[in-house]
From TrEMBL:
Transmembrane stretches, start-end: 12-30, 42-60, 66-85, 92-109, 165-185, 197-218, 252-270
List of catalytic residues: 170, 211
InterPro entries assigned to the protein according to its UniProt record, in alphabetical order: ArtA, Exo/Archaeosortase_dom, Exosortase
Molecular function terms from GO: peptidase activity
Domain of life: Archaea
Gene this chain is encoded by: artA
Record's protein name: Archaeosortase A
GO cellular component, one term: plasma membrane
Length: 311
């Protein structure tokens, strides 16, 4: 039997983590000496444990190599961030603040039932509308998650006999929370922050719609049922051949392109809110141990303090 961590445990742990990050933000706002650093350092340790607890879920249930690797990597990276903060790298308090805001955006959507229901079922309706633009109208019925989010393709009329349903991860709220947190954490004029957030959310919504339609059609109609791919899925993943198109479309093509899209959106957002570069420079330092000047790397049209470009 595959080991898994109960979602109730990770939900509670997530609230504890975000509560600790929010406390560090409040202590910094109150200007309480070194307390914000110490509290934020502890929050990063718990944050790493949280991601470690999700590894079995991503490995056994989601079967996503990208998410499994990222969850595993999050523990040492979080611990390293905690050490850097504890030793006095105060700039990481801005990154900690960004995580706090990310959590405040994402966790209510994840844990409050009526918000979660609205997000999932609205996303499913929009994806169904997208399918209709390509001549498919399967209808929506209740999925295994209990929401009206399953595309009701007739298994006797499709190639694989399978269909898909929308879950929370398909709504794009996670990516929206990332940019919302980054933008909220930095000091910049409200007008530019609002413009950057609206731009990011709009692009994420559109790309997420395309992704859901792509996966929703690829799975039942067997777009990736080629023999080499079927062999890999059945031999190395132990999955039935009929799941090949879903796994290829979702776990490999969809998630890989999502990472590429996040990088691209980040590049465009810093053109609107260049103050975000300060946070990104700290992220790169944690990842590589090297200091970077992204303002210089991105050219003279961007200044990390939002001021006039370099001449």
């Amino acid at each position: 039997m595959a080991f898994s961590v109960p979602s109730s445990f990770t939900d509670v742990l997530a609230w504890v983590v975000i509560g600790a990050f929010v406390l560090s933000v409040l202590l910094e706002w109150l200007d309480v000496a070194d307390a914000p650093r110490y509290v934020a350092s502890a929050a990063w340790v718990i944050f790493g444990v949280f991601w470690l607890a999700l590894v079995p879920h991503y490995y056994y249930h989601v079967q996503s190599p990208i998410e499994t690797i990222l969850s595993l990597a999050a523990l040492p990276l979080s611990l390293y961030t905690a050490v850097l903060l504890f030793r006095g790298r105060d700039s990481l308090l801005v990154l900690s603040k960004a995580v706090a805001f990310m959590g405040l955006i994402y966790l209510p959507a994840e844990t409050i039932p009526f918000v979660r229901t609205w997000l999932i079922e609205t996303t499913a309706s929009q994806a169904h509308w997208g399918m209709e633009q390509f001549g498919y109208s399967p209808g929506l019925v209740e999925g295994a998650n209990g929401y009206q989010s399953r595309f009701d393709f007739d298994p006797d009329e499709t190639v694989t006999g399978r269909t898909t349903y929308i879950v929370m991860a398909c709504t794009g709220i996670g990516s929206m929370a990332i940019f919302g947190g980054l933008i909220a954490a930095v000091k910049a004029p409200l007008r530019r922050k609002a413009a950057g957030f609206a731009f990011a959310v709009g692009i994420i919504w559109f790309l997420n719609l395309v992704r859901n339609v792509f996966i929703g059609l690829a799975s039942p109609w067997g777009w990736f049922q080629q023999e080499p791919l079927v062999y890999v899925v059945t031999t190395y993943l132990g999955e039935p051949a009929s799941r090949t198109s879903f796994l290829v479309a979702h776990n490999y093509i969809g998630q890989t392109l999502s990472v590429v899209a996040l990088v691209g959106i980040t590049y465009l957002v810093v053109r609107i809110v260049p103050e975000v570069l300060v946070v990104l420079e700290d992220v790169l330092f944690v990842l590589t141990g090297t200091e970077y000047d992204l303002e210089d790397a991105l050219g003279p049209s961007v200044r990390a303090d939002g001021g006039e470009p370099k001449r």
